[in-house]
Amino acid sequence: MANQNQCHFTGRIGKLEIRYTQDKNPISVFSLAISKSRKDNSGQWIDDTTWINCKAFKQIAEYINNYAQKGTFVRITAAYQENKWTDKSGQQRISPEFLVNDVEILGNRKEKKPQESQGRTGIPTTNPIHQADFEDEDIPF
What we know:
By secondary structure, the protein is mainly beta. The chain is built from 1 helix and 5 strands, in the order βββαββ. It has a 5-stranded mixed barrel with strand order 1-2-3-5-4. A hairpin with a 5-residue loop joins strand 4 and strand 5 (92-107). The chain is globular, with a radius of gyration of 17 Å.
């Protein structure tokens, strides 16, 4: 049976950091803003943004570190995972996160690196979608 724990998201990267294991393997930890627009009762457009926590490992983490930055528009495929832990007051907590299996960079607000991708094949670093659809004011961070 195929893996049924698979999620697809399109959004903009928020906080982005790279970490390394003791074996020097990279881990990219980032938040992803998933936005949708809707009309309220008065007919005004309201942007609703949901933030999700994502984590990528090894080659995918290197790729994200080399070609993405805050505000980069990406599409990811990820697996859902829950981290269970106990806080200082003894309360059980659950922290959801998404483990990235694949990433496609759809566009950067600003180019981080001038050269084309030399990373994973099949993942463009240029924008195949119309980037003009998004203005800086549309991004909630």
